[in-house]
Every structure is written in structure tokens, then in C-alpha cells.
Amino acid sequence: MSKLTRTYAARNVPRYTSYPTAPHFHSGVDATVYSRWLTELTCEDSLSLYLHVPFCRDICHYCGCLTKASRQDAPLQAYGDTLLQELELVADRLKHSGPVKHIHWGGGTPSLLPRQAFLEITGMMRVLFELAPDLEHAIELDPRHVTTELTQTLRDIGITRTSLGVQDFDRNVQKAIGRVQPRETVERALEMLRDAGLKDVNFDLMYGLPGQSEETVASTIKQALALQPSRISLFGYAHVPWMKKNQRLIDETLLPQPADRLAMAALAREALVAGDYQQIGLDHFALPDDSMATALADGTLHRNFQGYTTDQASQLIGLGVSSIGKLKAGYAQNISDVAGWRKKVQAGELPIARGFALTDEDQLRGDIIERLMTNYRCNLPASCNAFGLPLSTLDDALGILAPYVADGLARHERDELVMTPEGRPFVRLVASAFDAYLKTAPSTGASKQTPPVPRHSMAV
Asked: Strand 100-107 vs strand 131-141: parallel, antiparallel, or unpaired?
């Protein structure tokens, strides 16, 4: 085990799909505040819409998403009806916004919505918003529930990209995580999508799952490469049973140790790159002609709650239970239970539970974290200048950063902070040096003044 692995691999740090991270959101941002933020948008502010559908047929043991099991279609149709109402509430407040450039359906298993719900919701979007000609319209899918009828619906509503939750092809690992889906199931789903003209398909894979080994991970990567998805996301499993009760079904004695996780991640990365996929940031891979590879090359790659993204919209609007939006003024998150969310929407109120109003310093630190996470480098003085703040704003961060630089995780190249090749697997840890809220817990007020500490997943 290397010194870096012994010292850093088991550290607990955020995934940085936002800054500040969601544990620091507070009730000081409510429906009134969010409504004002929406009305302040202008025609220069392009939009991205995220729709969260919190239903699955079964809950997998490893799942960290907000979702619930439903074997019936009636709750899904009712949920779709409320989404329609929420869309109208938001649109009523967007008097001068720009076009929608990106739509993403997440969950849960959003494809469980009835066909009629999809047609009504997407039809309403076309009425309420201006959709950009180059709109990307994406949805997350469970391979076990992909049918010919579904692929026709996806084509009819204008889906341009799909993501299949594969996780692992090994039968024993699948049993350990409560998600048995033979390779043939994935192959059949992929075939149906491609037959429907949906060529841009992503695979989600995971390492650090119970029962995994370097051999099983290598086999999964080999099988994924044979199917040639457009992109592959390679996520480290986040074991947080204190937050997700379903994860208590996992036998913790079967979980790989930090050094094993690091070896699995390295092996998978090497195999994917050798298979002609380009590495994108920490955990994404794309074929050379994919738009994500292009975004990395031209410096337009971003990171949000869906991970690495080509989404170029400046404003993200969240719809549905627990969804999070990010506007230029700050973050806003919806109520996390269906009944409470529906009650607010039916009363004609935006269903906001909490959020975070961003200061200039928050935006600076978030910009640095995103640049490190996407490009592995950041010009610190240039970022400070862009937000009108002195370099001394980062004195605390540079102090925290010093031992990481000394241990070779990162280095200073003139004005740039650059991740070393050895340090890249630990980029979340280096990024955390710029997190002014990491050691504080959420409150209704200024979170910098509150006591410790949200718990996070391992750094690798």
C-alpha cells in the first residue's frame, strides 16, 4: 500500500456536485426568495430543466437516491399530474428567461411514468418554454424495464440521450447489491434503444461494491467495452447507511478496503483508456467523437448534480420531489416528501424547502472547485480577479493545501494549481481545501458559525 493510499484514501469528503454542498442548505431560502430569483432572470439566462421522479419497482441495496418502491401505475400518473402543475408555477415567474438548452429526467426510474404523462409534460414544456434547436434531452433508465413501447415513447418525446444503470455484470455482485440483471438484459435494452434511433447511450458502472475484486471489475469493463456505449460513468460506491437505510442490507464485511477501491478504479481507468475512451475528469469516459470529449477539449465541460455534463445553460431549474436548482443567486431545493410537495403545488405555491444564497466568495470557491474537478487545474489569481476578490481570500485554503502539495497530490506552476497524475484520484480531497463550510453543519442562518460536521463518503 502506497503512502498516498495509507494517508488519504479513506478520508471522507464531498463529491462536489455543488458548492456549498447540500448539507449546508437552510430554510432561510424559501418559496418567496426563490420566486424573486426566478423573476430576476433575463433573456440572457439560458435554462436547464431537471425533473426528478422518485419511484422504482424495487429499491436496490446500494442506492443513495431519494426514491420509493411502487408496483402500481396510479401513483406515477398522479405524480406526473403534479409535475405539470409545478411546471406552470415556475413558468409563471419566468417572464424574461432565455431558451431551454438541456432537459434531464432522473430518479428513481423516471421511465416508469406512463406514456400519457410523458406526452403531456413534454407537450407542456413546448408551450411554456422556448426549446433550443440543439436541445439535449436525456433520461436515466433501468435496463430491466426497457421495452419496445418505452423506446418508442422516448423517441416520440424527443429524447436524445439515455443512461443505463449497469453497475456490474458479475452475478454474485448483483446479488449482493440487490439488483440482478443478466448481461443479456442490458444487451437487449441497448438493442431496443438503438433500433429506435437512440444512438447516444451511456453506461453507469460502479466500483467498491460488496463482493467486487479486481478480476470482477476487469470482466465488467471488458463486457462494457464490447457493447460500445457513447459514454461510461465509473462511480465509487458511497456507503452511507446512516443516511440510506436500504444500504444496511449490504454485508459490510464484503466491502473492498480503500486500497482495493483505489486499485479497482485504476484498473478500470486504464482498461477504458486502452479501449479508446477518453477520460473526462474523475469518473467519466467518452468516445473521442462524443460531445463530452469535445467539451473537455474546448474548456466548456461543467459539473452539476448529474456529475460531469456538457450542459451549457446558465440556470438550472429543479422540478419534482427533492430536486435542486441552481440560479445565479443561489441554490433552491424542493420538499423531499411527495405528500408535502404535492400539497404546496396544488395550493399554487413553489414547493421549496431550503436553499443557499451565494456570496461572491462562495462563487469564487465554487469556481475553483469545479475547475479542479473538470480540468485538474486552476489559475487562482485569475479566478480571484474574475470575482473581484483579493488572492488573500484563499489564505486559509492555501494553508490546508500545503501538505497535499508536499505529498505530491498537486503542485504550483506559476499562478496555476495543477493536480499531479498521482494526485488525480484524490482531486476531491484537494478541492476540499477550498471548502470554507466543510467543518460546519447546516442551520437556518449563517452556516459558517454552526458546529460540526456532515458525514461524507470516502475520497476514492
From this structure: parallel
- Whether the CB-CB separation of 331 and 324 falls below 8 Å is answered with yes
Phi, psi (5° rounding) for residue 138?
A: -120, 155
One-character DSSP codes across 203-256 = EEEEES-TT--HHHHHHHHHHHHHH--SEEEEEEP---TTT-GGGGGS-GGGSP
Distances (CA, A) of 220 to 63, 186, 211, 279, 443: 19, 12, 13, 18, 43
Report helix, strand or coil for 107: strand
Kindly give, in sequence order, each residue whose CB lies less than 8 Å from that of residue 2, ignoring residues fewer than 6 positions away: none
Dist. CA 186–CA 184, nearest whole Å: 5
Tens of pLDDT, residues 46-102: 999 999 999 999 999 988 887 888 878 899 999 999 999 999 999 999 988 899 999
Please check whether residue 53 is in contact with residue 82, taking contact to mean a CB–CB distance below 8 angstroms.
no
Contacts from 433-436 at CB under 8 Å and sequence distance 24+? 433/397, 433/398, 433/400, 433/401, 433/404, 434/365, 434/368, 434/369, 434/372, 434/394, 434/397, 435/14, 435/19, 435/20, 435/21, 435/365, 435/369, 436/361, 436/365, 436/396, 436/397
Number of Cβ atoms within 10 Å of the Cβ of 246: 16
Residue 226 main-chain phi, psi, to 5 deg = -65, -25
H or E element in which residue 280 lies: strand 278-280
Enter the C-alpha cell of residue 151.
423506446
How many C-beta atoms lie closer than 10 Å to residue 386's C-beta? 12
- Report cis status (omega within 30 of 0) of the bond before 108: yes
Per DSSP bridges, beta strands 284-286 and 231-236 are: antiparallel
pTM, two decimals, is 0.91
Distance CA 362, CA 357 (A): 9
How would you classify the pairing of strands 284-286 and 302-304?
unpaired
Half-sphere exposure at residue 347, Cβ-oriented, CA atoms within 13 angstroms: 11
Task: Give 107-145 pLDDT, tens digit per residue.
Answer: 999 999 999 999 999 999 999 999 999 999 999 999 999
Assess contact for 425 and 265: CB atoms under 8 A: yes
Total length of the chain = 460
Count other C-beta atoms under 10 Å from residue 321's C-beta. Answer: 29
Of 215, 207, 267, the closest CA to residue 239 belongs to: 207
- How many whole angstroms from its chain centre is CA 355? 17
Q: Which three cell numbers stand for residue 9?
A: 484514501
29-60 burial code (b ≥16 CB/10 A, e <16) = bbbebbbebbeebeeebbbbbbbbbbbbeebb
Q: Is residue 427 helix, strand or coil?
A: helix
Query: Quick one: cell of 334?
Result: 424542493
